[in-house]
Amino acid sequence: MDVTICLKSMLLAIRQYKNNRSTVNTSQLQKQIHDLTGLQCSKLLAFGQVLPSECLSGLLEVAVDPKTSQALTSSIVSLLAKLATSDDETREALHSSYNLTGALASIIHSNRATPEDPLLVQCLQVLQRFTYSMRISHCVSFLDDLLAFLMQNIKSRNDDIIKPCLGLMANLCRHNLSVQTHIKSQSNVKALYRSLIDFLAHNSLTVVIYALSILTSLTLNEEEGQKLFNAENIHQTFPLIFNVTVNGDGSLTRNYAVDLLVDLVKNPKIADYLANYKLLPACLTEVFGLLHCKDAETAAKVLELLVSLCPVTGLRKLLCETVFRSFKPRRQPAGKRGGQGKVSEPCLALLQWATGPLHDTERCCLQALHLLTELFEEVIGAGTTSSVHSYLELLLPALVGILQVPDSTEEEQQLKKHCVRVGRVVELLLVLCGEEELKSLVSQQISSKLCSSQVELLLSSSHSSSSPVTDSDLSQVYAEAVLKLLELMSHLKQHVLDMETCFYRILQDQRIVTPLSLAMTSQRRELVQSALRILFEAAPLPDFPSIILGESIAANNAYREAQRESELSVKRVAVQEPLPSVKLSTVPAAPGCKVTNTTKQTIDSLIEKLHSGLELQDQMKDVHMSEVIDVYEQKISALASKESRLEDLLEAKALALAQADRLLAQYRCQRAQAEAEARKLAGLLQESERGKEALQGQLGEQVLEVQRVRQDMQRLLEHNARMQAVSDEHQTLKASYNQLLNRYNDTERLLKELRSAHGALTQMSEGLKKNYDALRLQQERTLAEVAEQDKLIRGQQADLKDKEDTISDLQGELTRQKEQADEMEESISILRKELNKTEQARKDASIKASSLELQKSQLEAKLQKKEEELSKNMHMIAMIHSLSSGKINTDTANVSL
Fold first, then answer.
1. Sign of the dihedral defined by the CA atoms of residues 243, 249, 251, 256, in that order
2. CB 213 within 8 A of CB 252
C-alpha cells in the first residue's frame, strides 16, 4: 500500500473518531495505525509535508486525551516508537516540532496511579529510547512531574518498571545541569542515593549500569562521588563496564556502559586510575574485537569510547600499541568491505569502517577517521613512523578513494555528509604531512587533479546553495572542507607535480572569498587560524580578491549583529508582554499554509460583482426580454464558474484557518514557556544581584587584604633577593666541595684497589716460597732414593748372574734326565713286547718300571722347584730392569734368558 494513500485514510479515520468515538471508528483508526506501522516510513517528516504533519498531530491529540482507550493509545505509542527509531531526521522533528516527549509524559502523568500498567511501562520504554543522547530543557512544564514520578517509582520491586525508570532518569540527568540541580534540591535526595547504591548489588547488569550512570551525573564531582568512586571501588567498576561493553546485555545497555566510561574518564583522578589499571591492555584488545562485528551502532559506540580515551595521558600510546602491534602486511588490501573473511587485526577493522559507505555507517566512518588521526599523532610524536609504513600502503589508497568526486551530487544531505568526511580525511592527511617521511608517502598518492576537482566541487556547491549564511549551515561545512584541502595543497605544493600551480590558481578565484570570510568570522579558533594561514599565502598574489573579501566579512558581521539584536528583541517582548495560559499543543507549523489578505480580497470582489449584476437587472427593465435572458444566462454561467472557484478558495481558507489556529496555539504555548523561563531567569537575576552585593563587600575586604599581602610580598622579595645572593655563594661553594669530594672519592677508590692488588700479590709470593721449599726437600729425598736404588740394582745384577749360571746347570741336568727318560720309555716298550714271553721277565720288568717311575717323580719335583726359582729370578730381573730403564718387559727378559 502507498504511504500517501494510507496517510489520507488515517487522516479521515482520525476526523471520524474525533467526531464520534464509537467502537467502529476506534477499530477503523486502529486498523489504519496497524497498516501504517507495517509500512516503511523513513524520512516521513523530513521535508515538512502537510499530510504527515496533520496525521501525526491528530494522533498525538488522540493519544494525550485521557478518554482514549488504552488499546488505541498503545497502538499510537507503538507507531510513534517506530517513527522515532526510523531515522535521525524524523527523530529530531518529533522532538523539536511535535513535542513527543511532552505527549508521552502526559500519558504517564494520566496513568501514574497504576505504575505497573502495561501502557505506562510501554511509554516509559519508548521515552527512554527517545530521550537517549537528547537534551531535555528543564523549562518545560512536564519535567518536574516526570522527575517526581521517576524518583517515586525507582523503589519498585518490579524490574519491568525499574529498568525504564532508571534508564530515563539517566538520560535526563546526563549533561543537564539544571535537571541535576533540581534533583539535588529535593528533600528525599539522600534516600534516592541510598536506593541507587543498593541497586549496585542487583543481579541485573543493566540495572547496575543505569544506577552508576545516575550516580556519576549527580555525585561525580561531589563528596559522595569521591567516596563512591575511590581507588578500591573504581577498580571493581572498570571490569564491570568492560564486561558489559564486550559481552553486552543488549545494545542499549552497551551504549549506557560506554557513556558511563566516557563520563568517568573526564574526571582526572579516575582517568589516572584507568591509566594504571593492570587489566586495561587485555580489556582494550577485547573492545577492539567488537569492531569486527557488522552492527554499525555497536561499532560507533566502541569507536566513541576509544576516541574519548585518547586525551587521557598514557592511554593514546597504549591504544597505538594495541592497534599496530599485531598488524602484518597482506598482499590483498582490506579497504573494501565484503570481499574478505573475518578480520583479525584492529587496524584493518578501522580501515573498513573508515572507508565504508556513507548511507550506512556515517558515524562509524567519522569516528574511525578521528581515531586514526589521534593514533598517527601519537606515532609521529613517539618517532615510530617506520612501524606503520606497511599499514599506510593500505590506508592511503583508501583515503584517496574517499577524496574522489562522488557520482551523484544532487542531494544536499548526501553532499554535506561527503564534505564532512572529506574534512576528516584531510585532517588525517595533514597529520601525516607533519613528518617528512610520511609526507613523501602521501605525496605519492595525492595528485593535483584530485585536489583541484574536489575544491571545484565544493566551491560550485557552496555558491549554488541558497541557504542563509550561518555557522551551522551547509555553507559552513563547505568552507571548512575547502580550507582543509587548501592547507593540504599548501603542504604538498613542493612535493606533487603541478600542485603549486593549482594552489595559486584556486587562491585567485573569487569564489574562495566565501569560505575565507565564513572561517574568519567563525567562533572556532582552529578555523580562524587556518583561514589566516591561507590568507597569508594568498595576499601577495596579484589577482587575489582582497576587497571582495573585506566586504564579505563586513556583511557576515552585520548579518550576525542583526540576528543577535532580533533574538534579544524577541526575548524582551516575551518577558514584557503578559501571556494567557494556554493548553500545550503538539501540532507543528505546516509549511505553505499561511493566511494572507489575497483570499479576502478575492471574496470581496466576487460579492461586488454580484451586486453589480443585480443593479444591472434594475436598469434593464425597458430592454427586450430576449436580451435580458441572454444577459442573465451569461451572468449565471459566469457566477457558476466563480462559485466553483469561490468554494475552492473557501475550502483552502478553512484549511489555512485551522492550521493558523494550531500555529497560534503552539506560538502561545512557546510564549508561555518563554515567560516561565524568563520568570525563572528573573529570580536567578535577583539572587545573583544579592550575591553580587555580598561579594562586593567581600571584595573590599579582599582588596585591603591584597594590599597588606603586597607589602608583605615586597619585604619577602627583598629578603628573597638577599637569600638568593647567599644561595648563589652557597651553590658556588657547594660545587667546589662536590668537585673536591669527587676527587677524594676517586683517589680513595684507587687506593683501595691498589691495596687489594698488593695483598693478593703478597699472598701469591708466600705461596710460591712455600712451594719452592717443599719442591727442594722433595728433590733431595728423591736423589737419596735414587742413590740407594742404584746400589740395590748393582747387588741384584750380581745375584742375577749367579742365578743365571745355576739355571744353565740345572737346564743341562734336566736335558740329561729327559734323555734318560726317553731311553727308559724305549726300554719299557721293549719290556712290554717281551712281557708275553715269560711271566718272570714281566715281574722283573714291572719291578724295574716302578723303581724308574719313583725316580721320575723325584726328578719332576726337582724340576718344578727349579722352575719356581727360575720364575722368581725372572721376576726380580724384570723389577731390576724396570727400576733402571723402565722399558724392559718380561718378554725381553725371556728372550735374553
1. negative
2. no
